[in-house]
């Protein structure tokens, strides 16, 4: 039965499927320690659900086994990430967010798998999860043999690196468990060394409050000023820790059409994106994960990136266009960015007169 379930998953487009149980005692202890340090920042839902995240049978009554699935997301033909990051006039968007919202894609595929299982095996209790509830997906995927937790805290696979989504199906069926794989990070710590904001404070320990993905997506208020210059042109997420990982030389391009690049966001100019109105933002990004942050935070993030861009008339003009924006949050970040340009212009003039 287990092999049939995995085959059905592959037929639906998943790149790998594993099966694990509900025991996460070690992960529960690590979760409580992480929460105790306050490293979850404004993600109050992490603390609100507490230990239920590590107790699947309490989260969904009747759960006996968990089917965990992996789906590659790297879009074909996207511009090289490092080239974009190295061009301060352009916007870097985490490669997972360039296409359709992954929540919708994974949920549909997992529901189709549940429907196929029901048709073939008979009725059973189940629930689909796609990063949409308190589920410890990396721990479950590792338990299901899909990879191991890397030092950057993401799941790593010898066959696929880390550029993939994870989804789960909690089921009342008693299925044979897969064997976890061993850790293959060794002495490598490239992910720790490359992190722009030093959010990976130690192997397997992430202070989300410093993470650019958290700051640009989860954080609602003003971005702490000391961290702004470190963000560069990353306006939605950050892939640096994955880009330097040796295992990602085995990452695969996605074959899922939904993950193809939309709106040219793999290689867009900051000034162009900053000019989008609320209506344009909603229309262009409909059906994507990015739309969830809203237009205000979109402008906040781009203002920081424009402040980090090389001084130019285009960058200054873009920032000037939003100086009187109705949002206090946007105005504050625009003012910071303009002041940063002024400081660098003054330094350049002083150097030329020396």
TrEMBL record:
This is Epoxyqueuosine reductase. One of its GO terms (cellular component) is cytoplasm. It is found in: Cytoplasm. It is an enzyme of class 1 (oxidoreductase). Belongs to the QueG family. Binds 2 [4Fe-4S] clusters per monomer. It comes from the Bacteria. [4Fe-4S] cluster 1 binds at residues 185, 188, 191, 245.
């Amino acid at each position: 039965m287990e092999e049939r379930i995995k085959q059905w998953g592959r037929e639906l487009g998943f790149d790998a499927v594993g099966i694990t149980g509900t025991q996460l005692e070690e992960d529960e202890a690590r979760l409580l320690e992480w929460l105790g340090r306050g490293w979850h920042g404004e993600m109050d839902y992490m603390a609100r659900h507490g230990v239920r995240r590590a107790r699947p049978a309490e989260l969904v009554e009747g759960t006996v086994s968990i089917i965990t699935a992996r789906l590659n997301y790297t879009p074909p033909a996207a511009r090289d990430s490092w080239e974009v990051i190295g061009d301060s006039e352009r916007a870097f968007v985490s490669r997972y967010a360039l296409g359709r919202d992954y929540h919708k894609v994974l949920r549909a595929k997992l529901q189709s798998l549940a429907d196929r299982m029901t048709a073939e095996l008979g009725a059973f209790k189940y629930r689909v999860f796609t990063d949409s509830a308190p589920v410890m997906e990396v721990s479950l995927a590792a338990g299901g043999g899909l990879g191991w937790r890397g030092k950057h805290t993401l799941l790593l696979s010898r066959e696929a690196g880390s550029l993939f989504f994870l989804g789960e199906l909690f089921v009342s069926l008693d299925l044979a468990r897969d064997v976890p794989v061993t850790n293959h990070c060794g002495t490598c710590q490239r992910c720790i060394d490359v992190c722009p904001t030093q959010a990976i404070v130690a192997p397997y320990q992430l202070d989300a409050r410093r993470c650019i993905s958290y700051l640009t997506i989860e954080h609602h208020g003003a971005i702490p000023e000391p961290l702004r210059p470190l963000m560069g042109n990353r306006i939605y997420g950050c892939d640096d820790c994955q880009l330097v990982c040796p295992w990602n030389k085995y990452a695969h391009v996605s074959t899922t059409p939904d993950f193809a690049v939309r709106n040219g966001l793999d290689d867009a100019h900051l000034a162009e994106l900053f000019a989008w109105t609320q209506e344009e933002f909603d229309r262009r990004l409909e059906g994507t994960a990015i739309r969830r942050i809203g237009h205000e935070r979109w402008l906040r993030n781009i203002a920081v990136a424009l402040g980090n861009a090389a001084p130019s008339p285009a960058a200054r003009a873009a920032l000037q266009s939003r100086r009187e924006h109705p949002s206090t949050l946007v105005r504050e970040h625009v003012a910071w960015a303009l002041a940063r340009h002024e400081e660098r212009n003054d330094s350049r003039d002083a150097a030329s007169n020396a």
